Amino acid sequence: MKKAMTLAVGVLTAVAGSSVAAETPTAPTPKMRPALLVIDVQNAFLSYMSDQDKKLAPEMINYAIAQFRQNGHPVIRIYHTDPNWGPKPDTEPFEFPSSIAIKPDDPKVVKNHPSAFKKTELETLLREKGVNALFLVGLSATGCVLATYQGAAERDFDVFMVRDALISPDTELTRAVERISETVSYGALRVMLQNASK
Q: How many CA atoms lie within 13 A of 57 on its CB side?
């Protein structure tokens, strides 16, 4: 009899505890506040990239830019220069080709290291805008894009690469980077941005 009573009390305690836990409110998950990073699509580097990547990626980069603009989310331009080797800022090799749909009023970050976060104002800029999710396009998939992806993850941003909007010197390596990273298709990107916070 004592065993039965002890068991009954234990069961009631467990049930009561689970119903209390079920009624405890949980904090709402914050909505995604995205930004697009267009990384290093500069004239100086494009000649070293895979011809196959260069056929598709610029179009996909522009599709991504258009989706961010249409949904009111920021597009941020990232440029690379080496203090010794260039390309020198404000020169034609430093600039993006006119075929990439960036605008002069898109925020601009200039970096000297593979990661766009290392010794730049990028993180401060993103935090000021309330951004918590990043989508990456550009080059090189195997270098600066991958380094920036890792830098974003280390800083607790949700981070994704946009499929077919990456460029590297070797198309096989571009696809490998897409396989090992969180990557979204153009269709998935469109839906995500339509449902994101502004």
A: 28
* Host domain of residue 92: 31-193
Which residue is listed with tokens 């990626």? Answer: 57
Whether 12 is in a domain gets the answer no
For the ranges 5-19, 72-86, 108-122, 179-193, the lowest mean pLDDT is seen at 5-19
CATH of the domain at 118: 3.40.50.850
Per-residue tokens: 127: 């935090």
- Asked if residue 89 is part of any domain, the answer here is yes
End-to-end CA distance of the chain: 63
List, in order, residues 6 or more apart from 47 with CB less than 8 Å away.
none
16 vs 175 pLDDT, higher one:
175
Cβ partners under 8 Å of residue 79, min gap 6: 40, 42, 89, 94, 108, 109, 110, 111
Contact assessment for residue 37 and residue 135, using Cβ atoms and an 8 Å cutoff:
yes
* CA dihedral (189, 195, 197, 198) positive or negative: positive
- The whole-angstrom separation of Cα 197 and Cα 132 is 10
Is residue 16 in some structural domain?
no
Q: For residue 180, give both structure tokens.
A: 């090992």
Radius of gyration (Cα) for the chain, nearest Å? 23
Asked if the model's pLDDT at residue 21 lies above 50, the reply is: no
